[in-house]
Design goal:
The complex is a heterodimer of chains A (322) and B (221). Helices cover 22% and strands 27% of the residues of chain A. Chain A is an alpha/beta fold and 322 residues long. In chain A, helix 1 links the parallel strand 1 and strand 2. An eight-stranded mixed beta sheet of chain B has the order 2-1-3-4-6-5-7-8. Chain B is globular. Chain B is built from eight helices and eight strands, in the order αβαβαββααβαβαββα. Classes of the chains: A alpha/beta (322), B alpha/beta (221).
Chain lengths: 322, 221
């Protein structure tokens, strides 16, 4: 059951230069694609990634809707290849978080590992993180049965019963992965319909290890030391019941990672970054790409597209300044 | 057939050629029976140590070399310990196979041990080197967890900054289910400091140092 692959993705940090043409914040598919295009345009390019490259794609066990891979590709492998491709053309990747940012001045500054870096342009590709359910028990039992990452935590639920929350494509796709371990999975959905791609629903149903519970609201997650069940309410009849389980995996949407920018960039009412048709934000020289952009369809293919466009537009922007 | 792909080997060689300074001895404890991942761990370490003449693999057996095992605090296998120049123990332990995402943790640790230092910020190094009580950090992981290497690396970098007092272990949860059970690990990364403080998720290095200091504070009272 243990993943026995040994491959390399960025074992160390780069020696940071004092200045770059473009700094890309976020190393998911959008940020890495921007890095590929920017470095091929011979812009000196730094990608700043706080965790692992690949963003949410890297926590997707198997990606089937990204063109060019007819049999699908493992999310981590896709991420690794994108990273490799960016580095091949000279992009540097720094693992860490900006300690301070000035996006408003003409020359942008980013403080990384106590070092002040300047950039002529910045692309924000910080993406999203899974949204929490915000029900009692969720916070208390996080890491004790409540999880937001199937590839990370799936192995702890061998032959256990699970509840997955959310019948969108992510929820169903990850539930299919979890059937490798779980004895049974109930996918609970607030809406009366399944939102996931049909092909995923067919596949999940064919596995015969799970079922859907639609039009049900999660009231709370129960358990003392660890999860023992999920209390739900039927939204039409109002009837409550307890679904016994040892794990709860939550896929109820995404939260944009824009806290650091909320005072300097214009965001939409959900916190995503507003851009014009050139992917320019409200601050000159600051563009956005990937899932963090307002109205993004939050697909790897879409993030890759906007990453490429953002880098091309940065190139034009920098040329116009010369 | 080699495990490493050619382009990965090439990349690792470039990294090692440019970044390794001193010799690193990779001590591997295994046993013949009832260790599913001892063999593949040995194989990958053989391939890694062949890449640079600064690296040597030193094999030990948990039972036969039980005195050594005791000395290094090894009670389960496979166990990897990285020793720097003069066999200096930097407090770094890997219990279980360092595969998947943890492979990069191992490579980065080898480079750090070879240099006798990591890129931990100078203010954190100062805080950490002031610690004069034993600290034991356990980081539970799974190889498919992209958030885990950051937690492992933070713990290992902290150990490198004060190896006399701080030991940091990566524990691959699926290979040691009894430990995962004992520490109630249902999500990774999960870090446990001195059996007192625990937290889930990968915290910034600064926050991990604060948690260590908090664990030691508690020890005084």
């Amino acid at each position: 059951m243990v993943d026995l692959t040994f491959s390399v993705s960025a074992p160390s940090r780069v020696g940071l230069k004092d200045s770059y043409d473009v700094v890309i914040i976020g190393g998911g598919p959008g940020g890495l694609t921007a890095a590929i295009y920017a470095s091929r345009a011979r812009l000196s390019t730094l990608v700043v990634e706080k965790g692992a490259t690949g963003g949410l794609a890297a926590t997707t066990e198997w990606v089937e809707n990204y063109p060019g891979f007819p049999d699908g590709i493992a999310g981590p492998e896709l991420a690794r290849r994108m990273e490799e491709q960016a580095k091949r053309f000279g992009a540097e990747i720094f693992f860490g978080q900006p300690e301070n940012l000035d996006l408003v001045s003409d020359i942008k500054t980013i403080v990384l590992a106590f070092k002040k870096i300047s950039a002529r342009a910045v692309i924000i590709a910080t993406g999203t993180i899974p949204r929490k359910l915000n029900v009692p028990g969720e916070k208390e039992l996080a890491g004790r049965g409540v999880s937001y990452c199937a590839t990370c935590d799936g192995p702890f639920f061998k032959n256990r019963e699970l509840v997955a929350v959310g019948a969108g494509s992510s929820g169903v796709q990850e539930s299919i992965f979890l059937t490798k371990y779980a004895s049974r999975i109930t996918i609970v959905e607030y809406l009366p319909t399944i939102q996931a791609e049909k092909i995923l629903v067919e596949r999940f149903s064919a596995l015969g290890k799970g079922s859907f519970l639609l039009n049900h609201e999660i009231l709370r997650i129960e358990g003392k030391e660890k999860v023992s069940g999920v209390r739900v309410r039927d939204r039409s009849s109002g009837e409550e019941k307890l679904i016994p389980c040892e794990g709860v995996f939550v896929w109820v949407g995404l939260l944009p990672q824009t806290d650091a920018f909320k005072d300097v960039l214009r965001l939409d009412k959900w916190g995503y970054i507003e851009v014009n048709s050139n992917l320019e934000t409200s601050a000159p020289g600051v563009l956005a790409a990937g899932d963090v952009v307002s109205g993004a369809s939050r697909q790897i293919a879409a993030a890759v597209g906007s990453g490429a466009a953002a880098a091309i537009n940065v190139e034009h922007y920098l040329a116009s300044k010369e | 057939m080699p495990i490493l792909k050619d382009d990965d080997r090439k990349y690792i060689r470039e990294q090692f050629d440019s970044k390794l300074k001193g010799k690193v001895k990779i001590l591997l404890f295994t046993q013949k029976l009832e260790c599913e991942y001892c063999q593949p761990t040995e194989e990958i370490l053989k391939e890694i140590t062949e890449i640079s003449d600064k690296l040597v693999l030193d094999m030990r057996n948990l039972q036969i070399d039980s005195e050594d095992a005791k000395g290094f605090g090894v009670d389960k296998v496979p166990a990897i310990i990285l020793l720097g120049e003069g066999d200096k123990d930097f407090g770094i332990r890997f219990f279980g196979i360092p595969s998947g995402y943890e492979f990069t943790s191992l490579l980065a640790d080898i480079i750090d041990v070879s240099n006798g230092a990591s890129d931990l910020g100078p203010d954190l190094v100062e805080k950490v080197s002031g610690i004069s009580k034993p600290v034991d950090i356990k980081v539970f992981v799974t190889p498919t967890c992209p958030y885990c290497p950051a937690a492992v690396r933070a713990a290992h970098k902290i150990a490198i900054a004060n190896p006399g007092f701080i030991h940091a272990q990566m524990i691959e949860s699926t290979e040691f289910p009894h430990l995962a059970n004992r520490y109630a690990v249902y999500g990774v990364p999960k870090t446990i400091i001195n059996e007192k403080i625990q937290f889930e998720g990968s915290l910034p290095e600064q926050a991990v140092v604060e948690q260590i200091l908090a664990a030691l504070q508690g020890a005084d009272s």
